[in-house]
TrEMBL record:
UniProt keyword Transmembrane helix present: yes
Cofactor dependence: Mg(2+)
Residues annotated as domain AIG1-type G: 1-211
CDD domains hit by this protein: beta-trefoil_FSCN-like, UDM1_RNF168
Name of the protein in question: AIG1-type G domain-containing protein
Pfam families for this protein: AIG1
Keywords assigned by UniProt, alphabetized: Chloroplast, Coiled coil, GTP-binding, Hydrolase, Magnesium, Membrane, Metal-binding, Nucleotide-binding, Plastid, Plastid outer membrane, Protein transport, Transmembrane, Transmembrane helix, Transport
Molecular function terms from GO: GTP binding; hydrolase activity; metal ion binding
Regions annotated as coiled coil: 203-247
Length: 388
């Protein structure tokens, strides 16, 4: 039976070179640059001491041009038509056994199943002292000691082999490759067991792996969405609480300051920022306004006030915004309760509609006092309350 040897690992680790070393050919394209030359798996068959081998070189993981999943799918395709069994996987790496290396190795375990580690040979390339057993053992031990994961990976694998497959330019005799080949083939010769490969099972493994990643990504997105929503609700609650706090503070401040003022129940005139005085029309149906009027601030319900004119009528703001008028009914129930909102020496007059009394910009108070329906700080009108 032909022994199928699958060479896998990350791009640039030396897979194709190792393939050439084992087969004593140049059938696999070696790339001097960090890019993957192997865009498709490639099989080279040869025999050694009466044993036939298929050496299968694959696209490296971490290839820049191909996605991880595509690479895995192609790796599975490499089996189709070649074989339904696997004699040995050679996992190639060079340098440190980094986290990327660990991830790549585990990914392959995932495709072939955990059982595969017993037919996996880890080959470290670019190791100049590869013929020195002690140096090789020390290096292997260092990798085992690196962390838990490397410990599990290296201890569970079939064998750990070091090579240094220099190019002809680097070593014209290619002695290192010959030596490496000997080491590798002695090892492969002893790899008599093979595990069956089931294309569908491998595809299922790959699919469920990416499905798990997808599911986790979706769960994560959903968690993030919920968190963002909670934060938004919290921020809104905080905003409302802050608004409420400020409102209360303003009311408390207004009340405190109002208590300290001497315009209660005294005659005052209300002067607007144009220097004009407030007058309110005595006839709610006409826009006629009399000459400047004297008002009295009557405290009602704590910080709320009613504004009474000199003729005993109360000022009332029309919610429609067409004007502030005197209430002819002079009925306490109909009084409008205003809140005086302090602003320096001035006061904003806030109606119970939540709108501010505002004097007509063009004509001034001597013609009309009106309600500003826009509650906007800049639009507030502030008045001087002048005792007379
Ligand atoms: N010195 C040295 N160079 C190597 C070794 N293995 C591979 N290389 C070089 O590393 C580069 C990438 O090798 P290649 O086999 O194409 O990597 P692949 O992407 O894994 O197939 C090439 O220039 C090789 O000559 C090795 O063991 N020692
Ligand atoms: Mg290659």
């Amino acid at each position: 039976m032909i022994r199928n040897i699958l060479i896998i690992g990350r791009t640039g680790s030396g897979k194709s070179t190792l393939g050439n070393t084992i087969t004593s050919t140049n059938c696999f394209k070696e790339s001097e640059y960090g890019v993957s030359e192997t865009k498709q798996y490639k099989v080279v068959s040869f025999s050694h001491q009466g044993v036939a081998y298929n050496i299968i070189d694959t696209v490296g993981l971490g290839d820049t041009k191909m996605g991880e999943r595509q690479i895995l799918d192609q790796m599975v395709s490499a089996f189709k038509g070649i074989t339904d069994n696997l004699s040995q996987i050679i996992y190639v790496f060079s340098g440190k056994f980094t986290q990327d290396e660990i991830d790549a190795y585990n990914l392959l375990n995932l495709v072939f199943g955990q059982d595969v580690s017993r037919i996996t040979t880890i080959v470290r390339t670019r190791f100049p002292k590869f013929t020195d057993t002690e140096a090789c053992n020390t290096d292997k031990q260092l990798i085992i000691n690196e962390n838990n994961q490397t410990n599990v990976i290296v201890s569970r694998c079939n064998k750990f082999i070091h090579v240094n497959n220099m190019t002809e330019d680097e070593q014209p005799t290619l002695k290192n490759r010959v030596d490496a080949k000997t080491i590798l083939l002695v090892h492969l010769q002893g790899c008599t067991t093979a595990i069956p490969t089931n294309e569908q099972a491998m595809r299922n493994n790959i699919n469920s792996h990416y499905q798990r990643i997808e599911d986790e990504k979706r769960r994560q997105q959903e968690r993030e969405r919920q968190l963002a929503e909670q934060q938004r609700v919290l921020a809104e609650q905080q905003r409302l609480a802050e608004l409420h706090r400020r409102e209360l503070e303003a009311k408390i401040l207004a009340e405190k300051r109002l208590r300290g003022y001497d315009f209660w129940n005294r005659n005052i005139v209300i002067q607007n920022w144009h220097g004009q005085y407030m007058t309110a029309g005595v006839n709610p149906y006409s826009t006629f306004r009399g000459p400047s009027q004297t008002f009295t601030l009557v405290p009602v319900e704590g910080y709320k006030v009613a504004i009474r004119s000199e003729n005993g009528l109360y000022l009332r703001a029309h919610p429609g915004g067409q004007g502030a008028k005197l209430d002819l009914s002079n009925n306490l129930l109909d009084w409008e309760k205003f809140i005086l909102v302090p602003h320096g020496d001035h006061w904003g007059i806030l109606s119970f509609h939540g709108t501010y009394i505002r004097s007509h910009r063009i004509r001034g108070f001597n013609k009309s006092a009106s309600i500003d329906l826009q509650v906007h700080m800049r639009e507030w009108e502030f008045y001087k309350l002048i005792p007379v």
